[in-house]
Structures are given as structure tokens and as C-alpha cells.
User: Fold Peptide/nickel transport system ATP-binding protein from Nonomuraea solani.
Amino acid sequence: MSILEVRDLTVTFPGGIEAVRGVSYEVERGEVLGIVGESGSGKSVTSLAIMGLLHRNAVVSGSAKLHGRELIGMDEDELIKVRGKSISMIFQDPLSAFTPVYTIGDQIAEAVRVHQKMGKDKAAKRAVELLDLVGIPHPDVRAKAFPHEFSGGMRQRAMIAMAIANDPDLLICDEPTTALDVTIQAQVLEVLKTAQQETGAGIVMITHDLGVIAGMADRVLVMYAGRPVEQGPVDDIYYRPRMPYTMGLLASVPRVDGEEGALVPIDGNPPSPANLPPGCPFAPRCPMKVDMCDDEEPPLTPFGGGRHVACIRSHEIEHKNLTGADVFPVPVIPPSDVVRVPRTERATVLELDDMIRHYPLMKGAVFKRRVGTVYAVDGISLDIAEGETLALVGESGCGKTTTLQQIMQLAPPQGGRVVVLGKDSAKLDSAGRRALRRDLQIVFQDPMAALDPRMPVGDIIAEPLRAHGRKDVRKRVGELLELVGLSSEHAERYPAQFSGGQRQRIGIARALALEPKLLVLDEPVSALDVSIQAGVINLLEELKNTLGLSYLFVAHDLAVVRHLADRVAVMYLGRIAEVGTVEDVYDHPAHPYTQALLSAIPLPDPEMERTRKRILLEGDLPSPADPPSGCRFRTRCPKFAQLSEGERRRCVDEEPSVARLAKAVDHGAACHYAEEIEVITASDDQEEK
Assistant:
């Protein structure tokens, strides 16, 4: 018998806006249902409606039965008894989900006492047990801490502890790993699996990460424009999709084990719920569209083997055995002329030599005194050649952003050298700094925050042109918009009138206005849906090749890095752990930290996810104000525990520097006992599936 049965669920907001339009699914005990789709497809609204957490102005109709008991329209007092007891939800942002003025232990204990007749002391003890279960170190101490004293990964684990406190029958996970580093994400997913084993609960996993779904889910529900468009077992959906939208989603995912070349984007943007097109909502973006697609919206119909598909051409897709690459046109990116010249013969556009950036750690509200030092960047060296992309990767807090800030400031560093386009930043005067800024530009992570909402995009792009005295401003703005795949007619619109992917293209156009030689990309695609992300990645690659640009690319998505970068530098706690070509670092990682990072990346391949081995790191990143002695990674290093006492002593006492590995000219690792191993196993028979 199903734990949850959802039938024809519809959510309508004021103005007649249908955000969810007839969603139906079931969840069995111990089963994981993955719900995927682009932003605005109705994934989260569906689950909030089931939990009774939508605003009162939302009109919810249809049915959602938990163990046969109707949740839609249930009295609030009755819902309170169900929420947290029989059904629990893990939210995307745990910091806003916790009350900041109560300790973590008190909040978990409260969740226990609301649903169970238990004394205060016993509930507090249960809270400690739950924190221990989800892998939080020193749970008795951490239970007395407040939410802001936990790291992001620890807060998410504490949220899971609260969710399973009363052994619920159903867990709804709304993007539980979106804001986490890949290593912490692996830990959280492992905790979720443990929680499911402990409680036997069914799980509804809502996410845009198709790799997470491949490794977690038994069945998959694909949503578009508020409706399910495909549903079925995870292997069928991933290896044999029958709906063009599903095919496009899977084809647009950058794979860390994939081949080089252009990604397959889905052109256009999802429709607004207030203005749906006639017929199939996906038709305006679908390469397989025919006239019949505009006549009426196709229903979700059985396809055999537990499959349901909403597409009039699904049987044709099956008969011809079409793939995403067959249906969606693969962009052709022109090759770069610069890279034909050997790297050693190209000019160096950026050089960091033992660069240091420390910050004082102050204490006191009125009379401040220095109590320590934050070693944000503690001596890193790297270089970028003309026409090259160097990716800087690592967990949050490793020093990536501080490195970017030091470079962009064009100011003397506290230690070492920063040389941009042959000019030492320590020797620049204000005029030299202003002139150099033409050739050094940045694209920010959040395009909406980077663009002034009060200005038309034409004025935003024109601003640096006018600041540097360009005369042909209007013509140049039109050229730049066309260059990034937009129209010159868009110059009069405001940022709010564009989608996220279009806003990022506007940010890139502004950065290219003065024809720079070096572009700094700070997480430029992390906030985008995977279908939109593919188009921006292809655009960046094409611009680099056609304009001869060089990129310093900061990212936490290592699959994106594999597609865009030529070389990669892995940072850990203010130091470089490993550096080399993408092929060397990804195929033969030598540092234990790099190996753990790569092994933690989820692959959009269910069979590989079920069989691959992960290297899970214990704990969180140490504080940069108090880094460990010797090797900074030793406190989390899986290899450290396997070393002899003498070898460990060397790791404790002696800090390793980046040493070149014997098998490659441009591959080095900062590990006393570096050993190249293969972490990602390519799927040879993927095409056959």
C-alpha cells in the first residue's frame, strides 16, 4: 500500500495563475521518488501544498492522501499533528528554517516533545542521539550551539535530524544539497540514506541536480509548466527518455566523465504560468514540434512498464531510438587559433607568485584588539597563458574569492607578487591601474545583483564605454548584445524583464565592452538551470576561441570545469593542493583531497552511481584562523589514517609544497605521499543504453 497518493493536485494563485496543474503520483514505503524540472515548473509548490504550507491566498484542489487520510483541506490543528510526525520536510535553506535564538538541541527536542509524551531531559538526550546519528561530531556539545555557529553542511544534517526525530513515514526533501559543496553534499546524501534505513520512510527528492536523482531515486517524475510530462523507473527515464524535454535536460548536463565539446542547450525559457502557449507548453522550445502540437495539450498517457509520457511523438522517439543529441542540435564552436601555439611560447596574462592575503581577527565592541589572524590566502602560485582557461576550485572558505579580490584590486599584495598582463600590481600608479582595468574584467555569480535594476541594459553596457571615452557607444552596445546571443532591440529593456540566463549574458556583454584580454568568471553559471547553463557555457567557450580571451574561472561544479577549463588548480585552506591540465587532474588525481572532490561528484548515470565508490571526508573545513600544523588536509585525509607513525609525523610537522609528478610536465600536488589513482570510471557502453 502507498504511503502517499496524490491525485490531480492543482494550485492556483490570485489572478487565475495555475502554478500546479493536475499532478498525480504515489510513493511506496522505502521508495525514493525524484521530482526534477527547471525553476518555475511547480516542483516545490506541489510539496508545499501537500504539507499545507502555502499562503492562504493559494487555492489548492485535488487529493493528497497520507495512509488513506486526506491532507488537502484538513483542519490546521490536525495538520500540525501530522507534520513532523507522519510526514516531515527538509528545506533548501536550513539557516532560515531554524529559529536563530534557540539552540539546535532545544529545537530538535521541541520537535520530539510536540508529538511524543516525553520529559524535557529525555527529549534533550534524544536530540543528542539524533545529532550523533546524522554524523555531527561531539553531539552533546554541538546540541548547545546556535544555528549560526554551524556550517552549512552541519545545519543541513541537523535539519535532517529534526525531520526524522519522530520516525516519519514520508520525508519530503526540497533541494537539500543545492547550496552545499560537493564533499558536504556527499555526506548529506549519505546521511539521508542512513535516515531512510533507520526509519524505513519513503522519500520525495526535489532537485535540479540530475546526478543526485540518478544515485538516490527509484522512480522519476519530470515536471514542466506545472504538469508532469514524463514519469517512470529511473533507468528508463535516464537511458530511454521518450519526451523531448527530458531528453534535452539529460543532454544539457555537463558530465565530469564526458567527452569534450559543446553541450546541448534547450533554446528559450520556460513559459510563465500566467501566459501558457496553446497546446503543448514545451512546443515553442521543442525541435520535434509539428502543427498538431499547437492543437491541444497532450495528456500524461501510459507507455508500458510503469512509464507515462505526455508527448504525441513519444512512440516515434521509441521506434527510431532517438537520443537528446539526435533531437536537439549540437552547436558547432569554432576552434581557437591561439591554442595552436604551444603553451610555453604564449604570453603569460596572469602570474601569482607566492601571493599572501591575511586578515586581522579582532575582538571587542568598543576597544577592539587583535586576537589572531585569518590566513585566507597563504602563499599560492599559478599562471595563465594567453588563450587559456584556468579553473580555481575548492570548498567554500578555501580562499578562491579572496584570490579574485586581490587580483581585481590591482593593489600590492601583503606578500608575493601579482603580475597582470606583464605589469606588477605593486608598481602601478593610479593612471596605470585605470589603464589596466580595460584589459581585466569580471563576470559575477549573481547577474541580478550585478546589474542596476533602475537602468536599461543598454545604459548598463554603455557605462564602461563612456567612462573610458568611447565615441561609438550606441553601435558598440548593439554589437555586444548580438555577440552574446541577444538582440540590439533589447537595449531599452530593464534587467527584471530578462530571464536568469539572459541576465548573465548581459553581464558578459558588459565585461566584454572594452575588449579585455583577461576575464575573471566568479561562479558564472551556478545560479542557472542546467538547460540554460549549457547555453552560457557554450557562449563562453565560443567567445574565448573567437576573441582570443583568457579566463580565470572560479567554480564549485567540477563537471562544468571539465567542459570549460584547460588547466585546473585545486585550493584547500588558502593553499594550492593540486594543479595541472584538466586531463591529468581529472583522470589521474594525485592529492587525496582532489580524489575526494572528484569521487563526490554525482553522475547522471544510475548504473554508474550504484556501482562507483565514494571517498567521504570526515568533518568540515577547519577554520582559516587556526589551520592545522604541517599538512593542512591531514585532519580530514583518508590516507593519513593508513600511514605509519613516522609518516604521520612528517604530515604533522612539515607542510608540503606543490611538487611536480613524474608522469606529467604540468601536473603537481602538495602531498608528501602523492599517488595518482583513477577515481572517475567512464561508462564505455553509455551510448548503447
